Amino acid sequence: MESLPDAIVQCIFSHMNNAKDVAICNCVSKRWKESLPFIRSLYFPRNSFDNHTGIDHPDTIVWKMISSIVKLEELVVYSPFSSAGLASWLLLVSSSLRHLELRLDNLAEYQSCIESPSKLDCISAAKNLESLKLWGVLMVKSPKWDAFPRLQTLEIVGARLEDPALTAALQACPNLKNLLLLGCEGVKSVSIELLHLEQCCSWIRVRETTRLRNLSISNNAGRVYMVDFGKLAALEFLSIRGVQWCWNAPSSAAKVRHPWSHVCCSLSKEQPEKCAVWVCGSLSGGGGDNNQVAVKRRAEDKHP
Amino acid sequence: MSSSAENPTLTTEITKPSTEIATETAQSAKKINLKTSDDQIFEVEESVAMEFATVKSFFEDAPSSTDTVPLPNVPAKPFSQVIEFCKEQIKFKANPDETEKKKSNSEFVKEKTNEDLVEMIPVANYLEIKDLLDVLNQAVADRIQNRSVEYVRSFFGIDNDFTSEEEALLREEHAWAFEDVDED
Q: Could you tell me if A201 and A178 are in contact, meaning their C-beta atoms sit under 8 angstroms apart?
């Protein structure tokens, strides 16, 4: 067979997001090498540099890969990196980057948080982000974020947060539609202009908001005694996950008036029944047509 | 199932789509002859042939020209597999079900050899069948995951056109990626 057209090689590249495979294909032939600049997405898995013995620092390797791409739209880095590295990458792709996902893993390193600029601060350079997903975040002081006017999705998984820092972070995301906070510790009370999210010890309260469409609440440690929702006019998706929910005070949830189209709860094994009652109770109180109510038991709960 | 007795409208609902299918088959009975580069003639139902954007525009440009459409860049072997794919796709046009479609697509690529996939790509490209092209590109990208440069070359039948110096330099530059790839 004669060689594949350039456009096809580029297509194959675009279906191949693991940076390692991209790097290997870059060495296949001249034509393949010339197609590399046109890929849109790069993904560095956690173990990307585990066995790396070369002279180049992983930060430099990522930088070299990014620098050969014309218009990178999505960058996912699960392998370890430094804030200086991140700053140098984002300098290259700040205008084209739409989706960024990073495993910061700096929960234990208080030092790295007070260094300046921190990894979080560096993200500010990627002004056109539409989605930002962060794993293992230590956010005890406000990140120096100007604004992400296009940011619609913010996910923070596994974090230690301070209220003012989270407030400041959310203020930089004025058009946020989807917010996911999973396994976040340290938040006591946060109220923001558009979405009023309040976590008070074991008390979660979401007040009136017109912008919030997807809401996920999770509790991994400690008990949640009260879930209180105000009128969430635009809410389309509600997910409640956790292992130690306590449904003693569900009556307040009946305040939800808007018909939800999708409600998803995953709970530990002794609770689905209670939860179902709670969900159905609050939904029928809402009077909407709720076609999809799924109460799922988390897989890991089956193996205590 | 027990509700069917309580619900008399259910019977009418069942008969309705079946008549639609009958009319559809009657309409699509028209066949089109397509001639491959190795001079084989395929008699294909019009609805299937219209999945090939290239063939479709051929008829739009010259509605009543020939009985047989020549496909000079398309060999018979991959073409028969492309037809197989499009026949499946048409079913989902009438009755869209993304999960079933995905399942059917992955079944389709699963039973194909590497060679089959690589041969179908230029055919799908020439005939402009976007769905198939996506499916094939994803399938080959999956199959060369964590493989060596040599494996990728033989997979696609690509000649190495780098000089040994150029290749050595590239391999040095991307040394990190060559650590522990799967055995060929």
A: no
